[in-house]
Every structure is written in structure tokens, then in C-alpha cells.
Amino acid sequence: MDIYDVMRTTGAVRRFTGDPLPDDVLHRILDNARFAPSGGNRQGVHVIAVRDHSTREALAGLSETGARRYIAQKANGEGPWNPLHPMQVSPDELASTAVPADMTAPLLTCAVVLVVCVDLGVVAALDQDLDRIGVVSGASVYPFVWNVLLAARNEGYGGVLTTMAVAEEPGIKTLLGIPDDYAVAAVVPLGRPQKHARKLTRKPVSEFVTRERFDGESL
């Protein structure tokens, strides 16, 4: 596929056909995705490919904490998990919030789940002393995750970058034997999509690019 076609049609895939994703195709996806950039080219990514159904059920269960808060806050008119605006949902309201099965279904119906970790011992978090949530260290892992999704699209497969389970990172580490100095960055279900996106909806360039300053003229 043309690279621009791949970029314009790589949507979030949550519904899968049940077809297998063979190891040789998965290897090819990862073999190409590994050329993503990372800070200092230190390549601190580690991927755990999970096919075992019981392990995926456990990951789905661990995802419910993040999903429950997401649903409860959204129902309350809040931005879920927003770092600037504290949650206003009460503990009782949160506890009584049901998590729909389709929130965790992709982890169970896909062909393979990739748990993407990053070695915190090699990332450069230049924003660690700023008075805000850190984001810069993600530059050493999320380009790789996006490359995985682009490569999967090129192979006729698809997936979605999820982070719901990360709210229960200690549980994920115990489940999968992840060392303490690694962070879980994403949980990515991959498989054959029931349908591929033909047209994605995104803001036009003029709405998010300005010249010279944040309040400058639109490009």
C-alpha cells in the first residue's frame, strides 16, 4: 500500500473476524516496526506477545478499573482521567458503574495481544522536573507502537492502542513477570478487522497548526 493510504486508513480496530495472525506475519510487522526512533537510539522497548486465552482474560479484568472510571466520568460530563481536572465522581458512584463487555472484548477476540513495555533506565524524561504530568519519555515507545499499527494495516490486519489496563500496572507486572524498572506503555490487540476504515475523521491542518506562535496565523 502507498504510505499515505496506510496513514489515512489506519483507524482504531476493535472488532475482529477471528482469523489467526500467524507468527511469521507478526514477526514481519514487528521487524518493520522496530525502525521507529527512540531517545538516543537506545531502543528500550520490550514486547510481550500474548496468545494464551486465560492470560488475556486476566488482562481484560485488569482493564476494568480504568474502564470503570472512564465510563463514570464521561457519564458525569467530565474528561476521563484528565490530569488537570480531578475526578468529581463519588466512590459509591464509581463502584456502582458497570463496565460493558465491549470495552474489554477486543482483548479476547483478537488474534494476539501485544503488551508494550519500555525500560525506564534508558529513556530521557526531560520534563521530569516540570510541574505537570510527564509525557516526553513516551517519545521512546509510542512511535514504535504506531509503527506496529501501520505495519499491521499494510498486512491487512489492524488493532488499537489501549491504556485502560495501565491503571493496574502492578497487576500486569505480576501477571507477565515484568521487571520493576519497566513501565507498561500500551496494550495492543491485533487481528483481522471485520472491516477496514475507508475515511477517518480528523481536524483539518488549519485548526491545529499556526505560524511562529501558538496564537499565530493558521497554516
TrEMBL record:
<dbReference type="Pfam" id="PF00881">
    <property type="entry name" value="Nitroreductase"/>
</dbReference>
<protein>
    <submittedName>
        <fullName>Nitroreductase</fullName>
    </submittedName>
</protein>
<dbReference type="GO" id="GO:0016491">
    <property type="term" value="F:oxidoreductase activity"/>
</dbReference>
<dbReference type="InterPro" id="IPR029479">
    <property type="entry name" value="Nitroreductase"/>
</dbReference>
<comment type="similarity">
    <text>Belongs to the nitroreductase family.</text>
</comment>
<keyword id="KW-0560">Oxidoreductase</keyword>
<dbReference type="InterPro" id="IPR000415">
    <property type="entry name" value="Nitroreductase-like"/>
</dbReference>
<feature type="domain" description="Nitroreductase">
    <location>
        <begin position="12"/>
        <end position="192"/>
    </location>
</feature>
